[in-house]
Amino acid sequence: MVRSDFFFAVRKATHTESYLHAESHHHPAQKFGVLNTLAIRALRIFDSEHLNEEKKHLVSTFKSIGYKEQEIKRAIEKAERKLLSHEPKAQDQPQGGKVSTLYPWSYRKNR
Length: 111
Known about the structure:
- The protein has 111 residues and is mainly alpha-helical.
- The protein is built from 3 helices and no strands.
């Protein structure tokens, strides 16, 4: 999958890097979910040039709020596995370049 149209992130000056602290009383699944979501976002948005830089940024940001490096890397690895398992295969691509979208409301009968 070629991602030539993706770029690196520019964070606003007002961005505070405020995420759930590791010592907060939130359920561990919620804390892991924040890490996982940001890792998936990074993998989807960043090109290969800037991906390692973003991973380092995630590690340093979450280490600064009490997460263990092992937890952070586990979330990043899980995100990578998730995206690799859902990557479209050649046989899954539509024939003739047409893409069909089905909407759940398109089959309703008018009353």
